[in-house]
Write a structure and sequence with these properties.
The protein has 11 helices and 31 strands. It has 576 residues and is an alpha+beta fold. The strands form 7 sheets. Strands 20, 21, 22, 23, 24, 28, 29, 30 and 31 form a 9-stranded mixed β-sheet that branches. Strands 4-5-6-7 form a 4-stranded antiparallel β-sheet. Strands 8-9-10-11 form a 4-stranded antiparallel β-sheet.
Length: 576
C-alpha cells in the first residue's frame, strides 16, 4: 500500500479514537492492546500510539481500574458482572456451625470436660450400642442415647451394676433418667426395663418386673423393706426372691409377688421357706384382731399376735380350727406350731388344743393336762408317753374324774376323761401311806405302770399277765410275796384271789393294770404300807384302787406304753 500523506495519518488516528470510544464493532476484530487496528507503520516519522493516545487522554479499554466512571469497558474473562461487587474472603460471614448431637448437647449441658464426666475417652459410637442407640465414654462415666429414651448419663457403681446386667442390651435396656438422689445418701436410676438402686449401706442392685411392682406398693426405699440388698435370685418352680433391708419379696408364676418380713418371715424360715410344707406366700400380711396379722401360703398360713408370736397353721388341724372361727373363736390364736409324733399331731391354742390322729381329730378345751405343759402340776410327767389323772374334789370322797393325757411331741393334751371311783374312804394326804386295803384308802402320788393283767390281752403293749384260777396278789406283810403277783391253789390271809375278782359278776379284774405304789421300780416295798393298787374295770367304790368304765379301761390299755404314769389325789394336792 502506498503511504498515506501526513494529513491522512491524522484522519486515521482520529477514526481509531472514535472507534475505541464506541467499543468493539461487530464488523471487525477487537482492537489490539495498543489500540491499533493495523500493523504499526514502518516509516521512521510515523507517530507512535503513545504520542497520539496516552493513558491520560484515552484510557485503555482493557484496564478496568483506569476506566472513567460510567464508561463501558470490556470485562476480563471470568470476572463477575459489573453490577455485583467482588467477594472479599477476609470480610465474608463464617458458615453456620453443624448442630450438636443429643449426646454432645447432654455433655455440654453438664459442663463438658470441666463437668463431672470429665474429658472424652472415646468418640461417639452409634454402631456398638443396640437398637439404634449411641454412646460416648468419658473419664468418669458415659452418656447413652436412643430415640425412645433420650440421652442420659451412667456412672459409678450404678453403671457397673448396669453393665453386669447386660447394659443397654440386657434386661434393663437404656437409661430413661440420670441418677436421682434419695434418702440416706442413696440414688436410683430408671431404665426401660426397671431401675437400679444404690446406697452406701447396700451397694447397687436392680429392681424390675413384678417384684418391683410389689416393692412400689410398700413405699419403695421409704417403706418397711428399705433398699434392696440383692438382685433377684432364682428358686424352685420358676420363682425368684429378692432380699431387702427389712425383709424379702418372693414371686412365682402360681403365687405372684408378695412380701415376707418380721416375725412371720422368721417362723416361715423355720419351716423351710418355699421348700417347706407352706410353699410360697399368696398374700402379704393382713391385720386381724388384737393387733395380730396373718399371711396365707400355698400350704397354709402364718399367724402372729403380740401375746403368742408367729405360728404356722395347716392341714387337718387348720381345718378344725377354721370350724371354731379361727382366732375369733373360742380357741383364739395358736401358741405353738403343729407338733407331730408318728401319725399323731397336736397344736396348742390360747383356749385349748387341737389334735390330729388318723380318724380321731378333735378340739379339746384346756384342762388338767395343760398343767403338765406349764409346770402347774405338783407331780412331774417324767416324759411319759401318757399321763393320767385321777382327781377327787375333796378328802373323804370316792368319786373322781379320770383324765387321760397323751404326749405328742412333748406336749400333753387331753385324750378323754371319764367318771371314776377310788377307795371308799377317799385319798390319804400326800406322803401318807394308804395302809392295808381293809381301810379302803387310796394313796396320793405319781406312779408308773409297767404291767397289765386280765382274762385276755385286749391289745396292750404292756407286759400282760393272763389270769388263771391260781392267780394271786400277795397281801400279807413280811411274806415273800407281799405286793406282787404269784400263783397258788390256796387263798391265804390278805392275799387277793385275782381269778375270783375277774370272774365274778362285777368283773373287776377282767382287765387291769398295776400301779407301782409301794413297789419297784418306783420304790422299795414297805411292809403294811399298802398293796394291790390297781387300775381296773367296774365303777363301784374300791378298797384303794381306781375303777373305770369297761370301754375306758380297754382303750387306756390299748394305748398304754411301759412307763406311762398315773397321778392321783385331791385336786388341791395335785395342782398349784
Amino acid at each position: 500500500m502506498r503511504p498515506l500523506r501526513r494529513g491522512g495519518w491524522a484522519a486515521a488516528l482520529a477514526l481509531a479514537a472514535l472507534i475505541a470510544a464506541a467499543g468493539p464493532s461487530q464488523a471487525g476484530p477487537a482492537p489490539s492492546p495498543t489500540g491499533s487496528a493495523s500493523p504499526a507503520p514502518t516509516s521512521a516519522d510515523a507517530p507512535s500510539a503513545a504520542a497520539t493516545a496516552s493513558p491520560s487522554a484515552t484510557p485503555s479499554p482493557t484496564d478496568p481500574a483506569a476506566a472513567p466512571a460510567g464508561t463501558a469497558s470490556a470485562a476480563p474473562t471470568g470476572a463477575p458482572p459489573a453490577s455485583a461487587p467482588p467477594t472479599d474472603p477476609a470480610t465474608a460471614p463464617a458458615p453456620a456451625p453443624a448442630p450438636l448431637s443429643p449426646i454432645q448437647a447432654k455433655y455440654a449441658a453438664l459442663g463438658g470436660a470441666a463437668g463431672w464426666l470429665g474429658a472424652s475417652v472415646s468418640a461417639e459410637d452409634c454402631a456398638a450400642p443396640p437398637a439404634g442407640g449411641c454412646a460416648a465414654v468419658f473419664r468418669n462415666g458415659a452418656v447413652y442415647w436412643s430415640a425412645a429414651s433420650g440421652a442420659h448419663t451412667v456412672g459409678g457403681a450404678v453403671r457397673a451394676r448396669w453393665a453386669a446386667a447386660g447394659a443397654a442390651g440386657g434386661l434393663l435396656g437404656y437409661p430413661t433418667t440420670d441418677e436421682v438422689p434419695i434418702r440416706s445418701g442413696g440414688v436410683y436410676q430408671l431404665y426401660q426395663g426397671g431401675a437400679i438402686y444404690w446406697s452406701p449401706a447396700t451397694g447397687a442392685h436392680t429392681s424390675r418386673g413384678a417384684v418391683r411392682a410389689e416393692y412400689a406398693a410398700t413405699g419403695w426405699e421409704n417403706g418397711f423393706l428399705g433398699y434392696p440388698t440383692t438382685d433377684e435370685v432364682p428358686i424352685r418352680s420358676g420363682g425368684v426372691y429378692q432380699l431387702f433391708q427389712g425383709g424379702a419379696i418372693l414371686w412365682s408364676p402360681a403365687s405372684g409377688a408378695h412380701t415376707s418380713g418380721g416375725a412371720i418371715r422368721g417362723a416361715w424360715a423355720a419351716t423351710g421357706y418355699e421348700n417347706g410344707p407352706l410353699g410360697y406366700p399368696t398374700t402379704d400380711e393382713l391385720p386381724i384382731r388384737s393387733g395380730g396379722v396373718y399371711q396365707l401360703y400355698q400350704g397354709g398360713a402364718m399367724y402372729w399376735s403380740p401375746g403368742t408370736g408367729a405360728r404356722a397353721s395347716r392341714g387337718g388341724i387348720r381345718a378344725v380350727w377354721a370350724g371354731t372361727g379361727y382366732e375369733n373363736g373360742s380357741l383364739g390364736y395358736p401358741v405353738t406350731n403343729e407338733l407331730c409324733s408318728g401319725s399323731s399331731c397336736i397344736q396348742k391354742f390360747q383356749g385349748g388344743t387341737i389334735t390330729w390322729i388318723a380318724g380321731a381329730t378333735g378340739v379339746h378345751p384346756y384342762n388338767e393336762c395343760e398343767s403338765l405343759n406349764n409346770g402347774r402340776s405338783n407331780y412331774p410327767s417324767y416324759g411319759a408317753s401318757a399321763v393320767s389323772f385321777a382327781i377327787a374334789e375333796s378328802y373323804g370322797s370316792y368319786r373322781a374324774t379320770f383324765v387321760r393325757c397323751q404326749n405328742t411331741a412333748g406336749v400333753y393334751w387331753p385324750d378323754w376323761s371319764a367318771g371314776a371311783t377310788v377307795g371308799r374312804s377317799g385319798f390319804k394326804p400326800p406322803g401318807v401311806a394308804s395302809g392295808p386295803t381293809r381301810y379302803e384308802y387310796s394313796p396320793t402320788g405319781d406312779y408308773s405302770v409297767t404291767q397289765a393283767f386280765g382274762l385276755g390281752n385286749p391289745g396292750t403293749a404292756l407286759p400282760y399277765q393272763t389270769l388263771n384260777p391260781n392267780s394271786r396278789w400277795g397281801g400279807n406283810p413280811w411274806s415273800g410275796t407281799y405286793n406282787q403277783y404269784f400263783e397258788s391253789s390256796s387263798w391265804v390271809g390278805y392275799d387277793e384271789n385275782m381269778w375270783y375278782f375277774a370272774t365274778r359278776s362285777t368283773h373287776d379284774y377282767r382287765q387291769g393294770a398295776v400301779l407301782n405304789y409301794n413297789r419297784p421300780p418306783d420304790a422299795g416295798i414297805v411292809q403294811d404300807a399298802g398293796f394291790a393298787i390297781f387300775l381296773h374295770e367296774n365303777t363301784s367304790p374300791t378298797a384303794g384302787c381306781i375303777a373305770l368304765p369297761d370301754w375306758n379301761l380297754v382303750d387306756w390299755l390299748q394305748k398304754a406304753r411301759s412307763g406311762d404314769r398315773i397321778i392321783m389325789g385331791v385336786r388341791s394336792a395335785l395342782f398349784r
